Amino acid sequence: MTWTLVLVLFAGAYAFKVTGLVILGGRTLPPVIDRCLALIPAAVVTALIVKDTFSVGQDLVLDARAAGIAVATVAAWRRAPLIVVIVLGAAVTAVVRQIS
Amino acid sequence: MPSSTVDADARWWRDPSLRPMIVACTTLSMAVGVFGVSFGVGSVAAGSSIAQTCALSLLVFTGASQFSAVSVVGAGGSFGSALGGALLLAARNGVYGLAMSRRVRGRLLTRLVAAQLVIDETTAMSVGQRDPRAQRIAFWFTGVTLYVFWNLGTLLGAVAGSAIDPTTYGLDAAFPAGFVAMVWPLLSDRRARQAAVLGGVICAVAVPLTPVGVPILLSALAVLVGLQRPPRVEPIVEVYP
User: Fold this and answer.
1) B180–chain A Cβ distance below 8 A for any pair
2) Do B65 and B180 form a contact (C-beta atoms < 8 A)?
3) CB contact under 8 A, B195 and A43
4) pLDDT mean over B157-184
5) A45 contacts in B (CB within 8 Å)?
6) Interchain contact, B223 vs A40, CB within 8 Å
């Protein structure tokens, strides 16, 4: 690791964040673009769930996490509080990992 | 927290309706702190100094990019490959920024500070809230607590050099589980359901085919379902067959 890399990473990562939030954001956009942007959270957060549950690097896998997320999904569907969903997901994953 | 935000939401921490969000965000931030410890350990083990390790967490502040950069460098990768992989992972924060721009307002300085906090967890926590005020508070609260825990964890891991393995307690599943709870309220909207399913499918298909970091970017293409015209008459009651 070099300090140059640390600083270039900082500049690059911050540039992405600022571009979305400050430079492009806050403008009045055509309704069709607005409709599309409103769907970003649903699309991207679901993709994050898929990635964090079913992948290790570039491999698709089915492991203990799938059990944890299945239980978490049922809990979310039953309108359990967020904290319960998180703890259940982690606990079930840990237990299944231990016994498998 | 910037003063303008506090003024607008005086005594927000006493608001009982925000308490579940505060408890959940704090818990998630502590889980992130454990990952901070493992980042600190891994980064020093991969040859970074303690100062560099802490600087990465303070400045870059987007975990996946940091892990990717130190592991590539540790494995002997070039400057370019370490940078390229990390920036691919960081690019999704630009997409989050777009989504958050309507929720995080204020002066330019406030937004420049907010930009540093635009990551997976703050975006997901914020969009899961019902009204704009709760969305704004969730963003700032998660951002600040997570920043603190992530950096304390990093420092602890870098100095101590040994730590618990987050996977032992299933903490790696804490993130997707939290994301499930956050995305759930969004899915009452038909178009959001379509975008969610399409985004998830795109990600699953892209994982084996594209470099790490790219699947999440590609999943943003699912927002194109918004190109359909909205129904002219909103049905008052949804009738299921």
Assistant:
1) yes
2) no
3) yes
4) 79
5) 123-124, 127, 179, 182-183, 186, 196
6) yes
For residue A39, the chain B residue with the least C-alpha distance is: B223
Q: Is B178 close to A85, i.e. CB distance below 8 A? A: yes
pLDDT at B141: 95
Query: What ipTM does the predicted assembly reach?
Result: 0.86
**How many helices (H) and strands (E) would you count in chain B?**
12, 0
Which residues in chain A touch residue B129, judged by CB atoms under 8 angstroms apart?
A: none
> Which residues touch B111 (CB under 8 Å, ≥6 apart)?
A21, A22, A26, B104, B105
Q: What are the angstrom distances between the C-alpha of B127 and each of A18, A44, B99, B172? A: 19, 12, 9, 21
Going by the DSSP 8-state scheme, the letter that residue A23 receives in this structure is I
- Contact in structure between A51 and B196 (CB atoms under 8 Å): no
Among B residues 114-173, those touching chain A with beta carbons less than 8 Å apart: 114-116, 118, 120, 123-124, 127-128, 167-173
Over 70: is that where the pLDDT of B237 sits?
no
More confident residue, B10 or B182: B182
Give me the tens of pLDDT residue by residue for chain A, a chain 100 residues long.
899 999 999 999 999 999 988 887 667 778 888 788 778 888 888 998 998 899 988 899 999 999 999 999 999 999 888 788 888 999 999 999 999 8
Neighboring chain A residues of B55 at a CB cutoff of 8 Å: 3, 6, 10
- Of B8-12, B34-38, B72-76, B108-112, give the lowest mean pLDDT range: B8-12
Sign of CA dihedral B107, B109, B113, B118: positive
* pLDDT reported for residue A29: 74
Q: How many Å lie between the alpha carbon of A11 and the closest alpha carbon of chain B? A: 8
Q: What values do phi and psi take at A55, rounded to 5?
A: -135, 150
Residue the block writes with tokens 């009204």: B131
Q: What angle do CA B223, B120, B88 make, to 5 degrees?
A: 75
